[in-house]
Design a protein that fits this description.
Elements lengths: L1 H22 L2 H21 L2 H21 L2
Helix pairs in contact: 1-2, 2-3
């Protein structure tokens, strides 16, 4: 069950990130980061390497945009 929750969190992170790209609402970007971090916690505990790699890439993209947005 936690793994499905983590996948949902990762999907939410993608959604929040996409919303930020359309609206430039900073809260969407923070929500994306919070969601992907939650997913990563579960993926790391489960040692799910592929899922961790994908989520880390998403997290890096979020941080890249945060840096450009001045957060």
């Amino acid at each position: 069950m936690p793994f499905l929750w983590a996948q949902t969190q990762e999907n939410l992170a993608i959604t929040f990130f996409s919303l930020f790209q359309k609206t430039h609402n900073q809260s969407q970007l923070q929500s994306a980061l919070d969601a992907v971090d939650g997913a990563l916690d579960v993926y790391r505990e489960a040692e799910a390497v592929l899922y961790m790699a994908n989520a880390e890439q998403l997290r890096a993209a979020i941080f890249n945009v945060m840096g450009r947005a001045g957060n």
